[in-house]
Design brief:
The chain has 243 residues and is α/β, with parallel strands linked by helices. It has 11 helices and 15 strands. The longest helix has 13 residues. It is globular and about 60 Å long.
Amino acid sequence: MDLLSKNGRVSVADLSTQFALSKATIRADLDALVQDGLIVRTHGGAISVDQSTVEGSFDVRSRLNSSSKRRIGIAAANMIEDGDAIALDASTTALSIAKQIQGRHELTVLTNGIYAALALMNRPGITILMPGGFLRRDSVSLIGAEGQDLIRRYHFGKGFFGAKGFTLQEGLTDVNRDEVSTKQDLVTHTKSVIAVVDSSKWGRVGFASFASVEQIDCIITDEGAPQDMIDALADLDVQVIVA
């Protein structure tokens, strides 16, 4: 942990040499730290939790708070009915939702997340609509003005949005300008805006806002969300579901 605090990341090979332990022992120690929520495993090593929240690859972010994201995904899926037209962003939590709705029928899903689309690809009851644009590797998503032109043609009953941060003042925020712009268009064309943010995102602020608190209808989160913020949201008529 001292090395991580100094360097931001460590490798199994370097740790094995430095501590004169086998790589198998180092991997077991790293796995134990993962279970304690102190680090995030990467290929060949690990990074600190603080470092991973800056942005990080989709694979790394998908491992953060994975059990909470799964519960949030199940709760969100329970809000989706056959025949709905929904929007999913490219967040890792949106992928959790996609995995839970594979049995739906006559469902239309717009998503700019490639992994979410792949999760639904072989489901005959689900129509997938993807905007065009440029591939953003960090989020494995399609972004850009070309895709936003398509988004503006449609209207969705429910939209599910992950975020880098959520506060009462700034609403839902993210770190990339193009992702924010795409999400802003999705929010504008969605009747019911549903935030899917685990408790680690509460109180954090990203680069730019894509939805104000006034635009949010519901937030699905986990039991770690701060109660004072939940109470404040109730006063603002924003439903909070703790999964």
